[in-house]
Amino acid sequence: MTAETRAHAAPRDLKLWVARGLAALLIGAGLLAAAFAIRRAETAPRTESAELAATTIPVSALAPGRVVEVAVQNNARVQAGDVLFRIDPEVYELRVAQARAALRTAQAAADDRARMVENELSALEISQAQVIRAQNNLALAQASLRRLENLLPQGFVTAQEVDTARTLAEDAEVTLNEALTAQRMAEVRVGTLDAAEAQVALARATLALAERELADTEVVARVDGVVTGLNLGVGAIVAPGAPLFTLIDTSEWRATAFFRETALRHIRVGAPADVFVLQEPDRRIRGRVQSIAAGIRSQDEISVLGLPVVPSALDWVRVANRFPVEIVLEDPPEDLMRLGASAAVVVRPGRAGEHD
């Protein structure tokens, strides 16, 4: 090789070594990035498959009737106790008036019965006093008769006096029997207030039910929330228990994140998490892992008499299933909270109570 050839080859060798060095650096950087990504995925699992969730409460009427007022609009925010809609109360007001009248009638009948029982008790007391008086008179008459009978043989009294005493004793015995009969009749006539008091209790219960039904004509929000799915107008006839629209409970918002089962071992209940709503993906919302699903049901799983049907096809590539993980949001921004909104979730390492 001549000097001129070596002079031309040297730059080519230098370029080759530089290219190889750059390639090695790029490969190394790629490996480091891949290792960092794998490590990151293990220590801070991330998923783009998540959505916002909240408790939904179907709103229905408890009393049947015709709607006379709808006090809210669709997507309106309400507080617990706010009136949502009203049902025509006329029939229920009449039932309350009827129940109140029935209660007054039952109470008046109970008062009359109480006075009757009081009179019957007074009559019984009088008959008992008459029995005691008759018993005393009989004892006195019998004692007089015995005393006179003892004096008759000695001639101190006449036979007429003894006969008179005997007649008085017999009359006293008859009077006692009559007093005893009157006492037994008075005892039978004395009644109780049980039936009257039962009627009063029944009337009060009927009134309470009527008042409850009247109160049910005004349907109120049970929790703070947002009205959705409202398609109810004045004049509509509603039935008890039939869902009319939905109230989204805004007291607690969650993110349901679907993680591959291979990532679940890196997720712990109570671990801090970051939620990014698709509407504003740069805005971080803090949260906590509330729960990890214990199981899911495959779409291919069909149960016949309790036995699973195994598909005949064989999957050579095993795909990891996704399990829902519930994230409770902390101080969620009201403007981003929409049921079913798409989100991304990152679960960060840490214990309960820790946050970056």
Can you tag this structure with a few keywords?
alpha+beta, Helix Hairpins, 356 residues, four-stranded antiparallel sheet, single chain, Elongation Factor Tu (Ef-tu), domain 3, 25% strand, elongated
Shape: elongated
How many structurally independent domains?
2
Overall pLDDT metric: 84
Please provide the ordered H/E string of secondary-structure elements.
HEEEEHHHEEEEEEEEEE
What fraction strand? 15-25%
The second-level CATH architecture of the largest domain is: Beta Barrel
The total of beta strands comes to 14
Structural class: alpha+beta
Rg from alpha-carbon coordinates: 48 Å
CATH fold assignment of the largest domain: Elongation Factor Tu (Ef-tu), domain 3
Q: So, the CATH homologous superfamily of the largest domain?
A: Efflux pump adaptor protein, beta barrel domain
Q: Identify low-pLDDT runs.
A: 33-38
Largest sheet: 6 strands, antiparallel, barrel
Quickly name the level 1 CATH class of the largest domain. Answer: Mainly Beta
Number of helices: 4
Task: Please list the strands of the largest sheet in the order they lie side by side.
Answer: 1-8-13-10-9-14
Helix content: 40-55%
- What distance separates the N and C termini? 66 Å
Describe this structure in words.
With 356 residues, the chain is α+β, with helices and mostly antiparallel strands. The chain has two domains: 43-84 and 225-347, Elongation Factor Tu (Ef-tu), domain 3; 91-212, Helix Hairpins. Helices cover 44% and strands 25% of the residues. It is built from four helices and 14 strands. Strands 1-8-13-10-9-14 form a six-stranded antiparallel beta barrel. The protein has a four-stranded antiparallel sheet with strand order 5-4-2-7, with no helix packed on it. α2 packs antiparallel against α3 and α2 (90-151) packs antiparallel against α4. The longest helix is centred in the middle third of the chain and has 62 residues, at 90-151. The radius of gyration is 48 Å and the shape is elongated.
